[in-house]
C-alpha cells in the first residue's frame, strides 16, 4: 500500500503564511484586508502570502462575491478550496477502529467502522492498514490525493515522536505508532491523544473557533479534558495536561484505578456508574446502556447514581474554570447519552464550586459520535500538513 509518489508539501514556507492560511481556513471566506486585520499582519504581507496559495489551488478567489471596503477598490474574498486535498482520520478504541475521509476543510466525505479482533499493536495495525487502503480507494473517486493520516488514541501520547506511551483501553506501552503506520500506509502520520485531537477539531472547525481560551471535557469510558490557553492546545510538559479524570471530587470516595480515591473518573465514568448501579440496586446490569435504561425506567437508586455523577462532573468543570478561566467549556463524549439524568446536577455543582467570575464561563454540551473523534484525528493531520502544530491558532479579531 505505500505510495510511490513523493509527499506533497504545503506551499507556505513561513509562519506568517501558515497563519494566514489557517485564518482563512477557520474564519473564511475573508478579504485580504480582513485577513490582515485578524492576523495583525500588513496587507502587503497577506497579499504576498496569498498569491502562491492561490497558484497551488489551496485558496480560491470568489470573484462573484465582491465586497467594497470603506475606502479603496472592491476586494474579492478568498476561501480554502476544501476539495483540493483529502485526509484520513482514525480513532482507535478497545473494540473497533473508526475511520473517516475528510476534505481540507475537515468535512467528512466517507466514514467506516471496523471491529478489532485483538488489541496487540500488530493486529490493530493490520486492521488500520486495511481500512486506510479502503479509504484510499474511495479517494480515487474524488480524483484528489490523500495528503496525511491522523490517528487518535486514548492515553498518554507523545505527538512529537508519534509514540503511544500508554493506552489503557488497548493496553499498549511505548508503541512507536507513527513510524509503524507510515510504513504500512505510505502517508505522513500524526498520532495524538484522542481528547486533544477532538479539541483541535473544535478549535479549528467547531465550537471553539475564535476563542482564545476554552476546554473540551469528555465523559464516557473515561473522563478527559483538552485545554486551549492563549490559542494553543496545551499538552503539558509530560503530555498529560488536562487529566481532570484523576482530580479527587468526592472525599473518601470510591477507589480509582490510579490508586487514589474519589477521583472524577471513579464516580462518573461509564464503568464506575455501572458498578455503582449494581451495588445500589442489586440489579445485575452489565454495561452503561443497561444502567441507563434502568434509570430511565424510574429506578430511584439508579437515578441517584447518575445524580451523584452529575455533581462530580460539575465540580470537575468548576476546577477547570477556577484554574484557567476559559471562555467556554464544551462537554462531549458518549456519556452524554445520560445527559437528561444529570444536566441539572452538573449545572448546580458548577455554579456552587466556580469561584467569582469563573462562574461566567459558558458550559455547552455537544454530543459527538466517534466519527467526530476520527474527524479530530484528521484535523491533526491537516494541522501538521499546514505546518502549524507549534503555532497558536488564529486569535479572535484584533479590533473587537
Please give the structural blueprint.
Elements: H1 15-27, H2 32-39, H3 43-55, E1 59-61, E2 78-80, E3 86-92, E4 96-103, E5 108-115, H4 121-142, E6 146-153, E7 156-158, E8 163-167, E9 172-175, H5 177-185, E10 189-193, H6 194-205, E11 214-219, E12 223-229, E13 232-233, H7 264-268, H8 270-281, H9 288-296, H10 300-324, E14 328-332, H11 339-353, E15 362-365, H12 370-386
Parallel strand pairs: 3-6, 6-10, 11-14, 14-15
Antiparallel strand pairs: 1-2, 3-4, 4-5, 7-8, 8-9, 11-12, 12-13
Helix pairs in contact: 1-2, 1-3, 2-3, 4-5, 6-12, 8-10, 9-10, 10-11
Features:
40% helix; five-stranded mixed sheet; disordered N terminus; globular; alpha/beta; 12 helices; 400 residues
What does this structure look like?
- By secondary structure, the chain is an alpha/beta fold.
- 40% of the residues lie in helices and 20% in strands.
- The chain has 12 helices and 15 strands.
- The strands form 4 sheets. Strands 5-4-3-6-10 form a 5-stranded mixed beta sheet.
- Strand 11 and strand 12 form a beta hairpin.
- Helix 4 packs across helix 5.
- It is globular, with a radius of gyration of 22 Å.
- It starts with 14 loop residues before the first helix and ends in a 14-residue tail after the last helix.
- The N terminus and C terminus are likely disordered.
Amino acid at each position: 500500500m505505500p505510495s510511490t509518489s513523493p509527499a506533497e508539501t504545503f506551499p507556505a514556507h513561513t509562519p506568517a503564511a501558515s497563519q494566514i492560511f489557517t485564518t482563512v481556513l477557520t474564519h473564511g471566506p475573508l478579504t485580504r484586508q480582513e485577513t490582515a486585520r485578524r492576523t495583525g499582519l500588513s496587507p502587503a504581507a497577506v497579499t504576498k502570502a496569498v498569491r502562491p496559495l492561490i497558484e497551488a489551488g489551496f485558496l480560491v478567489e470568489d470573484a462573484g462575491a465582491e465586497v467594497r471596503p470603506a475606502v479603496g477598490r472592491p476586494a474579492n474574498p478568498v476561501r480554502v478550496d476544501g476539495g483540493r486535498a483529502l485526509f484520513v482520520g482514525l480513532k482507535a478504541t478497545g473494540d473497533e477502529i473508526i475511520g473517516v475521509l475528510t476534505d481540507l476543510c475537515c468535512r467528512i466525505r466517507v466514514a467506516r467502522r471496523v471491529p478489532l479482533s485483538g488489541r496487540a499493536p500488530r493486529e490493530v495495525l493490520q486492521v488500520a492498514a486495511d481500512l486506510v487502503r479502503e479509504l484510499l480507494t474511495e479517494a480515487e473517486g474524488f480524483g484528489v490525493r490523500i495528503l496525511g493520516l491522523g490517528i487518535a488514541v486514548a492515553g498518554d501520547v507523545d505527538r512529537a515522536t508519534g509514540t503511544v506511551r500508554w493506552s489503557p483501553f488497548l493496553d499498549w506501552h511505548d508503541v512507536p505508532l507513527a513510524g509503524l503506520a507510515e510504513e504500512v500506509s505510505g502517508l505522513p502520520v500524526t498520532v495524538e491523544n484522542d481528547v486533544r485531537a477532538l479539541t483541535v477539531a473544535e478549535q479549528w472547525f467547531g465550537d471553539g473557533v475564535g476563542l482564545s481560551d476554552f476546554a473540551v471535557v469528555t465523559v464516557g469510558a473515561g473522563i478527559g479534558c483538552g485545554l486551549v490557553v492563549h490559542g494553543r492546545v496545551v499538552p503539558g510538559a509530560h503530555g498529560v495536561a488536562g487529566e481532570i479524570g484523576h482530580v479527587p471530587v468526592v472525599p473518601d470516595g470510591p477507589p480509582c484505578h490510579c490508586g487514589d480515591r474519589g477521583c472524577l473518573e471513579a464516580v462518573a465514568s461509564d464503568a464506575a456508574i455501572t458498578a455503582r448501579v449494581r451495588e445500589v440496586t442489586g440489579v445485575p446490569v452489565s454495561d452503561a446502556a443497561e444502567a441507563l435504561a434502568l434509570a430511565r425506567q424510574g429506578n430511584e437508586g439508579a437515578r441517584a447514581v447518575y445524580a451523584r455523577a452529575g455533581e462530580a462532573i460539575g465540580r470537575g468543570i468548576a476546577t477547570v474554570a477556577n484554574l484557567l478561566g476559559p471562555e467556554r467549556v464544551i462537554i462531549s463524549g458518549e456519556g452524554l447519552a445520560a445527559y437528561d439524568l444529570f444536566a441539572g446536577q452538573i449545572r448546580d455543582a458548577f455554579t456552587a464550586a466556580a469561584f467569582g467570575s469563573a462562574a461566567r464561563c459558558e458550559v455547552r454540551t455537544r454530543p459527538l459520535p466517534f466519527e467526530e473523534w476520527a474527524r479530530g484525528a484528521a484535523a491533526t493531520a491537516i494541522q501538521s500538513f499546514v505546518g502549524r502544530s507549534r503555532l497558536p491558532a488564529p486569535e479572535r479579531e484584533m479590533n473587537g
